[in-house]
From TrEMBL:
This is 3-hydroxyacyl-CoA dehydrogenase NAD-binding domain-containing protein. In the central section; belongs to the 3-hydroxyacyl-CoA dehydrogenase family. It comes from Actinoplanes subglobosus. Keywords: Fatty acid metabolism, Lipid degradation, Lipid metabolism, Lyase, Multifunctional enzyme, NAD, Oxidoreductase. Pathway: Lipid metabolism; fatty acid beta-oxidation. Gene3D superfamilies: 1.10.1040.50, 2-enoyl-CoA Hydratase, Chain A, domain 1, NAD(P)-binding Rossmann-like Domain. It catalyses: a (3S)-3-hydroxyacyl-CoA + NAD(+) = a 3-oxoacyl-CoA + NADH + H(+). Residues 323-502 form the 3-hydroxyacyl-CoA dehydrogenase NAD binding domain. InterPro entries: 3-OHacyl-CoA_DH_NAD-bd (IPR006176), 3HC_DH_C (IPR006108), 6-PGluconate_DH-like_C_sf (IPR008927), ClpP/crotonase-like_dom_sf (IPR029045), Enoyl-CoA_hydra/iso (IPR001753), FA_oxidation_alpha_subunit (IPR050136), NAD(P)-bd_dom_sf (IPR036291). Pfam families: 3HCDH, 3HCDH_N, ECH_1.
Amino acid sequence: MIENPNEVVTKAILRLVQVPGLDKPAALITLDNGFDYKKPNSFGPGGLKSLDEAITAATEADPAFIAVTGKPYIFCVGADITGMPLINSREQAVALGELGHRVFARLRSSTIPTFAFINGAAMGGGLEVALHCHYRTVSTGAAALALPEVAIGLIPGWGGSQILPNLIGIINAATVILQNPLTQKQLRPKQAKEMGVADALFEAADFLEDSLAWAAGVVKGDVTVERPEIERKDWDGVLEFVKAMLDEKLHGAVPAANKAVELLALAKTASFEDGTAAETEALADLILGDESRASLYSFDLVQRRAKRPVGVPDKSLARKVTKVGIIGAGLMASQLALLFLRRLQVPVVLTDLDQERVDKGVGYVHAEIDKLVAKKRMDEGTAAKLRLLVSGSVDKSVFADADFVIEAVFENLDLKKQIWAEFEKIVKPEAILATNTSSLSITEMAADLEHPERVVGFHFFNPVAVLPLLEIIRGEKTDDATLATAFEVGKTLKKSSVLVKDAPAFVVNRLLTRVTSEIFQAVDAGTPLDVVNVAMDPLGLPMRPIALLQLVGPAVAYHVGETLHAAFPDRYVDSPNLKRIVDSKLPVMVDKEINPEVVALLEVGDAPLTADEVRQKALDGLAEEIRIMLDEGVVAEAQDIDLCMILGAGYPFHLGGVTPYLDRSGTAEKVTGKRFLADGVANVRS
C-alpha cells in the first residue's frame, strides 16, 4: 500500500463508556484528526490503520456494543484525496480498495452489535463506514450526507454500491449514488432517516447521549429496528431508465456513472464478497483514468484555490460595510438585494426610476423571505429583522451614508457612466462603487469620475443565489482598498471570487461567446442547427449550445458578442443568423426541440460541417482564446480559467473545467504550441 507523507491522520480514539441500564460498558470510537471542523476527518492509509487497531481493542474489551462517531460537526468526509495523485499503478489502487474493505468489514461482520453515531458531515468513505455498522443514528446538525464519488470520476469503492441498494432500495440508492452527485445535491438528516439510511434521528444538542441511550435500548431489546423488505422485481427496469437518462445528459462522457450503474445492477443478486471485489476492480480502473484525475483537479480548485484567491490585497485594507445601496430594482437588482441582506444583515436600499418599480423590487425581497420562512430555512425572528432592513426610495439622497453601492441596470456604457456621475455627487467619498456589468469596461465606466479608484467590477452569475462564482474586476485605477473591500464582501456573500483584469467580457462570457461564435460561423456556413446542437455532446457539458442560447437569451448573447466583435473582430464574428434570431423574438427551443420557425429564418451557405468538425473548431477556438487571455494577464493562471468555468458556466469536474481536457486531447499543443498545465493534472496543486 502506498504511503502518503502528507496525510493528516484521522485517529480512532477508543474509550469505554458506562451507559445506564447496561451491565457492560460501550466501546465508543471517536474519529478525530486533531483539527477543528475546518479540516475534516478523512481516511488515508494511516487513518484506516488507526481504525483497524481501535476495532481490535474494542472487540477485546468485550463491550455491550461498539459505536463509531466523529469530532464536533464532522463524522468523516471519506478517502484522503491528497494521496490520490500518488497512486501511479493499478496494484496500488487495488491495495487501497482492499484495505478499506477489510477494515470496514470488521464492523459489518462483528458478533458484537455495531453502531454509527453520525454526528456531522458524512461523505464518501465516511458514510460507507457508517453503512457497514449494524445500526445508525444521525444528528439534525449533520450538514452533509452523501456518496459524491461519481462527481469526481470514481465510484463508492468501500461497500456503498452494494450495501445501500439492499438497505434503501434501488430507486433511492440510484438517487444517492448517481443523481445527487451529478446535480451537486446532498441528503439532509431528515431525508436520510426517511430513506432508511439512518435508523434514528436525534437533535444535535443531546445527540451523543440520546444515541447511547437508544443503542442501549436496541441491545436490551427495548427498541426494535424495522427495515422494509427490498423490492427486486423492478430493479432492472429502474437501472435501464437511469442508464437512458445518463446517456441523454452525459452522452457517455463520465465513465464513473456507467460503472456505478453496473455495480448497482450487480448488487441485486451478487454476494457481498463478489460485489465488493467488483467495486475494487472498478475503483482501480477509474482512479488512474483521465476523468478521475481531472475531477480531483477540479475538486482541489473548488475546495482550495477558490478559498485563497490569487493577487488580492491584504484584507486589513478593507473598509467596513454598514449599509448597501442598489441602483435598479429589476429582477437582478432584487436578487442582489436579497443576497446582500441575508449575508451582510445591514440596511439595504434600492432605487429606480419610479416608486412602482421600487415597490416591486422591495416586494420581491419580502416575498422571497416569506418563502424561506415557509420552507423552514429561516426563522421568523430573522425574517422580521431582514424585512426591516430592506427599503426602497426614488430619493437618491438615501444613498448618502451607504458604504457599498452596486448598480444592476441595462448593459449600456453611456447609461452606466451617467448613473455613476450622478451618484458620485451623493455618496460619501470613501464609498465603493461596484458595477454588475457582464462585459463592459470598468476603466471606461470610471474614466470621467472624480474618484475612479473606487470603482470595481462585481460580476455575478444568474441565478445569483445559486451560482457561486463572482468575477471581481480591477479597473486601471481601482485602488487596493477598494479591491480588498470587494473581496471581503464577496467572502461574506459566500461567493468564490476570482480577480480578473479589465478586459472585454472578462472570463466566462468571453469563453462562452467564443464557443457561440465558432458555432454560428458553422451555422452561417450551412451547418444545420440540429447538428451544431449535438456537436459538443462527447464532452458531457451541462447544456447543449442551442439550449444554452435559449437560457441566456439570444439578445443578451448577441449583445456580448457585439462587444467582443468590436474588440476582437478577427476572432468573434457578427453572425447575421444570430441577428435574425434576435430580431424575430421567437423562442429558439420549443418543448426541448429546436423551433422549426427559427430554422426557417436562417440563410446559410453551402459548406456545412460535421458535428465532429464543429466540436473541434470550438475547442480550437477555446484553446486560442485561453492562451491569449493568459498572455494578456486577464487572470493569474490557467487554474483561474478552470475555476471560473466550473463555478460560473457549470463546466463539469470530469473535464477539469477546460484546460486539462484541451491538454490531454492534444488541442492545446496543436493550437498554441504548448500545454496549459505543464506538469499534468495529477501534479497541479493550487
